[in-house]
Amino acid sequence: MTVITAEQLKTEELRLRYLELIEKPDVFPTRANWQFIISHGMLGLGPALYRKYLASRTIPEMDREELHDIAVEQFPAYLCAVPRRYAVETVYSDFTTDPASTASLIRECRLFDARGIMAMIQAGRLSTALDVIDTYSAEYTADDLAQMQSLVRCLDSLPELGSVEQRRGLLGSSVKYICPRGHVNDGDRTYCGHSGCGLDIHGLTSEQADRIEILRHRVRALATLISGIGD
């Protein structure tokens, strides 16, 4: 027979009340609300609280009210208080409203998730995905390794958006690298030399390519560790 204590019932009543309140666009939790929610690791509130966080982050700092600042401060603590899988599902559920804030959360709370990053790429959000591929997870399993290996393969097969062409000029023909934005460069350039561009043939900057290399190295290191554990 299941027994529910009065304290459990009171907490659930409050959780449902909080959920009802924070679904309203103009209602933001107070600091005391946040502390109670976090201390009890309340599930089911994640998406609504995430919306409060994103809404607050998109308001210029000088225009924020105290409850906005509290949301920006407390939401990362909430993510660290709930089970990791729930935190991951919450944050990766919206990576388009404010990609920079989402990336900041993933980095701060160590919410790297290869499946979630693949979803970003499949949704056409490659730049957002590349902003977080060098972040860490709090822990890794063999399944995580398999997903990370799939992510590397996906990144290795990015389509060529630019081209290398033989072009004729007044002094003869020469090889040119045409970046994805149409800028013409000498054929030996890997990255576009035009100001404000810097893209390679796949549309990546050198910084983004470096992050892919970090991921590739991390996958090799994790594979070594997991293989050693298996032995």
Describe this structure as you would to a colleague:
With 231 residues, the chain is mainly alpha-helical. Helix content is 55%, strand content 7%. It has helices at residues 6-22, 31-39, 46-57, 66-81, 84-92, 99-108, 114-122, 126-130, 142-156, 206-230; strands at 163-169, 172-178, 184-186. The protein has a 3-stranded antiparallel β-sheet with strand order 1-2-3, with no helix packed on it. A hairpin with a 5-residue loop joins strand 2 (172-178) and strand 3. The longest helix is centred in the C-terminal third of the chain and has 25 residues, at 206-230. The two termini are 44 Å apart.
Strands, helices and their partners?
Layout (H helix, E strand, L loop, with lengths): L5 H17 L8 H9 L6 H12 L8 H16 L2 H9 L6 H10 L5 H9 L3 H5 L11 H15 L6 E7 L2 E7 L5 E3 L19 H25 L1
Antiparallel strand pairs: 1-2, 2-3
Helix pairs in contact: 2-4, 3-4, 7-9, 9-10
